[in-house]
Design brief:
This protein has 127 residues and is mainly α. It is 58% helix and 0% strand. Helix 2 crosses helix 3.
């Protein structure tokens, strides 16, 4: 139950309109991990959930726009996700786990977008 409630709380990370990004990848991972450790009590930290949602959506939008601009300009994109409509669903715990791994290889000032991009490059390499 603990995992399902956390997943529910963090799944919204990819379901809320984006606003301006302001935290580093390392801050995002630390805050996400702290929220994860709260288990079901994480649902009572809506402000923190909202901050993480906003950050993740902003990063996702930025990285997607970069990929689309590269494709439009005839350049090879940095990652190649499955075709539209054949999206791969990733739960909040999987995203946080992957970002933890990526953060270990990124500089302290890396943005959440940098981490998201690195994760997508690893998960969806262009062939």
């Amino acid at each position: 139950m603990k995992k399902s409630l956390l997943a529910l709380a963090l799944t919204a990370v990819v379901a809320t309109p984006a606003m301006a990004a302001s935290m580093t990848l390392h801050q995002f991972v630390a805050r996400g991990t702290a929220l994860e450790k709260k288990g079901p009590m994480a649902l009572f930290h809506r402000g923190e959930i909202k901050a993480l949602q906003t950050e993740m959506l902003s990063a996702g939008k930025q990285v997607r726009e970069e990929r689309m601009a590269a494709e439009k300009a005839g350049r090879k994109p940095t990652y190649c996700p499955p075709a539209e409509g054949k999206g791969v669903k990733m739960g909040a715990q999987e995203v946080l786990k992957e970002l933890r791994l990526v953060a270990a290889t990124q500089p302290k000032n890396a943005t959440v977008a940098d981490g998201w991009r690195a994760m997508l490059v690893k998960k969806f390499p262009c062939r």
